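Progress narrative, work stream C.
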Amino acid sequence: EIDNAIENSNTQLGYHRIGITRRIDSNWSNGTPDRSRRVIINEDYLHNDGSHLSARQLTIDNNSKLTIQDKLLIVSDLVTITGINDEIRLAGSRSQLITTHSGNSGISGNGKLYIDQNSDIASTYRYNYFSSPVTTVGQNTFTIASVMKDGSFPTSADSNPLDITFTNEMDGDYTTSPITISDYWIYSYGSSSDWVQTRKDGILNPADGFTLKGPGQEQNYTFVGTPNDGVTSISIGANQSYLVGNPFPSAINSKKFIEDNSESITGTLYFWEQHPGHSEENDNEHYSSNYVGGYATRNLTMGIAAPNNGEDGVIFKIPGKYIAVAQGFFITGSNTGGEVVFKNSQREYKREGEDSLFFRDGENSSTETYQDPVVKIGLDYTNSEGQNLHRQLGVSFNENRSFSFDLGYDSPMYDLQPTDMFWKFTLDDTKYVIAGVQEISDDLEIPLGITIGFDSEIVVKLDEKQNIERNIYLKDKLTGITEKLTDNEQGILITLTQGEYLERYAIVFQESSSLGVNENIVNNNIDIYLDNTVNELVLKNNLNLNIKKVALYNILGQSIKTWNNLGAELEHRLRVRVPETVYIVAITTEQGIIRKKVRIN
């Protein structure tokens, strides 16, 4: 028995109604709707209080309008929106429609669904990535002009969204009524493996995503058409990129979507984000140099923010587990490619902000709780335009993962910057933004690659950790020094010259022990300096230690020159002719290894 059961519903013990219940004369004719009932709407009805509205089969007819205000409409079987004047309106930011049957679409009729999505990307010069939760009425495809309306007045029981005015000019305009949108900037990216200018009348499939530039203000859009339902799919080629989108008038679970398509895609979703620090004052023309941004990333374990503005107080948008209504995103085909499916079992009711995020300026997702231990590492740096930026990486730990590629847990980087940071494993040349590796141990080292666009300072810091009790360190494998990242709000400042550092740094979980007695003896009794007059490195071996090896490395960690078996003489002179810069000298003796930094002038 269900406590506090709704009166006249089939949840009451021993009390079950059968047959149709109709909404007519402001009442239900045969008890309250639930998921066991066939429900017919024969008059205009606003459902805005109590629980969500449920039905087994739902029919809208008699020129009727069903308006759902900030609630879920859930139907387990078929939906019929009978005539051209019959409507379902999902009003408010919390309203969604979910159908739970399997198989192909169960939607029929010539009526329409209304649902909104808002973009607060105010600039005329910035891209939105959209998809459509509806198709053109009576068809299984859509055009932007047929389904996307001026939503300046959000959907309500009596709203009347106007057809957008599309112009061939470059700029949209919010001062007109209806708003004006430039169809020049409407593009898709699909089977051709390139951007295709779709414009307002280009035909798109339900799972296709598209780009759009707005009218110059924050703008609400109303989608009007036949709601997408059941299985919808696209075909993706091997290693091909494809701009897809959530095709349903509800959120979808990214984990279920990735798992359902594990043989066809790499298991990573990419969401475009413009840098919020790239101000409106710079957004004055349609120049590609203004498109300063990157891709936030989502896989089975976590979401990672795009490289973003690193100033204090900036909110980083992290894609949550659920993909919002009308959200477009990129996927990549696996080595074989194949069919990519969206289906009803992926749909879930998640209001935006509840681990569901539509990518637009100035909004963040809620903090996610992860099942596995997770570490997120941040890089603060300044790009060539003087912008302070922040790159984020993530890594999860599980005994079933490895340094080999694990689909759904390892995510290649989609937007490498001239100065950047990435996970770099020796098994392949791929640079990863998210990695899944084995369990944490004292010996575990996760290689951290860094590329520097010009001589500069960077800061490496710990952005987040979950389900980990131990400290986390950054190890410089060239010098052997580890520095603590845990509880270090300022991060670790590193000065590097231009180039790639692929093997020098690693994330570790045990601090290197301090110099032992023998190593201290070595450190205190070997001096090294450069004799510029004869281009020689001079080693003063004050204890006549047996020097087995001397190795010279550049600041990238690359071996430049090695001298072996020097013996126990008091002084050693080593000839060097190398470019002027800073080098590391590693000296191996029978009592330990020391490393010293020298500048050759």
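Work stream C, second folded protein:
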Amino acid sequence: MSDQTFLSPQREFSLELGDKKLTVRTGAIANQANASVLCQTGDTIALANCTVSATARVGVDFLPLQVVYQEKYYAGGFIAGSRFRKREGRPSDDYVLLGRQIDRGLRPMFPKHFHRDIQVFCTVLSYDVENEHDVASANAANLAVALSDCPSDGPLGSVRVGLIGGELVLNPSREARAKSDLDMFLTASLERVVMIEAGANQVPEADVLRAIEFGKKWAQKIARFFADVQKEVGKKKFEAEPPFMHEEAYAFLKEWALPVVTDAIKKPMAKNARRAVFTDLMAKSEEKLKEQYPAPAGQTVPEELQKLYVNGKIFIDMIVKGEMRRLVLPEGVRMSGRKIEEIRPLAATVDVLPSRVHGSVLFERGETQCLTTCTLGAPGDKQIVEGMEGERKLRYFHHYNFPPFSVGETSNRLAVGNREIGHGNLAQRALLPLLPKEEDFPYTIRTVTEILSSNGSSSMAATCGSTLALMAAGVPIAAPVSAIALGLISDEEKGTYVVLTDLQDEEDFGGDMDFKVTGTERGITAIQMDIKIKGLPDAVFAEALERARKGRAQVLEVMLKAIPEPRKELSPYAPRIETMQIDPEDIRLVIGKGGETIQRITGELGVEIDIEDSGLIFITSVNGEAMRKAKEWIAGIVEKPEVGKVYKGKVIRIIPGVGAIVEFLPGKDGMIHISELQWKRTEQVEDVLKMGQELEAKVIEYDPMDGKTRLSLRQMTEPPAGMPPPRPFGGPPRGGRPGGGFGGRGPRR
């Protein structure tokens, strides 16, 4: 792209990244956004825009950041497969997850008290399949935020790390990722790692640490490159409005509330009871402030006092979080008096639902409680996912539901949210490497987690529940997966930190990190790291991974008491699957014209049939007899008639003066010529055969080219004395037309 192509001047910058070049462009397009960036590697191009609202959103006490990840089918050279909808719709789950991934890197870099709406759009414009679009999109977003006038720290760089044959690989291609034991997406600032998302095939902690170090080095190279670009073309950051603070009022409320807060934190209490204490303090805070700082009698309350009264709740929240952190750092005391490495009480119970549900488990960790089920389906139940990469099929999927009653609340937002999609995918990713190969266990597998009660780490409960539900359903997973979440309380000024084992809600909200780790006894299968501070010290990773390993082992011990290994038998209500291999050339025979044959089989027998291009057929049914009949039916369809063999058949058509058509194998019929009905002369076919008559007939000729078959009744017996013997099997027919005689009558004897 040259500057002459655009009305506005374009600036272009490039960085050699391993054996590839990363190119970013800005200034020429989408200039009404606060900043826009094109990021290109190979022929993959992503556009990211950062836009900020002019004013803060009223009544908001969180950072209103939204990252939208837009897939465009044209980027991959595709038109949507639906006949009725060609426009891209709501992002699929994959792209919701990619948006969350970028969001989790950017979010801690903004001021916590910044309440203007921030929207980052990531649009994939071109995708070459080799260079992954999520890396390009993340880096375009990282630079767009850095170049904008929105206050944020950074800039950030993002990379993917693979582990192939023990070697770490930077930004592996899609093809290479299929061979990799590790798929890690990492974002780092100039100083520290900010975000990690990873799936792994039981990778040891030491290799994960190597990958983090490797990824950090390359991500920081990108961040330094972006810092140079920012100095040259970035906008001046505007000042964020400082949060409201009244030191004297804060000290007054702290003196009043702190004894109650400390007691509630230290005392063993249920989550809702503890929150009721804090909510009561917040409700009373306004009256306490009005008593201490009364408004002038008979006058309108000044704006500053109104703001002070309203912020009483915020001050109480600050006091609660501050005391929670204070008790952890110097005293090592957590909510309910728990110790730093102490895991809440654990329990697991399988078969909590009848066996019509193929596998079920209730998993509990403290007040977090989840019900997970496993359902087995036919190969045809796979989920088809369509995107700019084309179509792919999911054999295993996990769905996570977080209803409002699980936290004692009401809500009119009952649709599945991005958080639920993210938590469900984390458990799914954690178990994927342990599933049996499809050729050994051809079922489609769905696990569903219903969060019944939550006090933190519900996604990790969902992972443990999914493992147990799979085992209860008889899925022969290679090893059980356990999971745990860790937190962090740090003091940046003093350089001290404490890693917390088994994170719960209040420690998540008031802490600095949510570090989720899943794995087997052999190694890690998934990692998800969210932080609220601007990066983690390197030493935290080694300690967190080791703490997670110990915690997972403790959780696994409880899980295996519930069910020590996958069941050998499936639920009697689970479908059974039989496989059979046919010649791929015969697939058309099983399907039939317009699907007529396969629809007849499935309709009459109540089975499901799935056929792969290789000729591998899956027959699924809960009825063993129906499955046996279906298998025999298909075997008959593809069976090649054997000359000289006698088959049972049924007359399905009579051609007067010519002969009869007999179905002698499922879907296969042959002609009994009138001359082959009996040894003596036959005047009318109806003299010997009737419609629907069942009989046995011998194959006397079969043409594999067109599938035509000749049958005989008379050659089932010896000819009468003095009559010449019949022609040899497979030889040219006597009389009739040369080369076969299928269409006319031969001479009668």
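Confidence is low (pLDDT under 50) at residues 729-749. No further action is required on this item.
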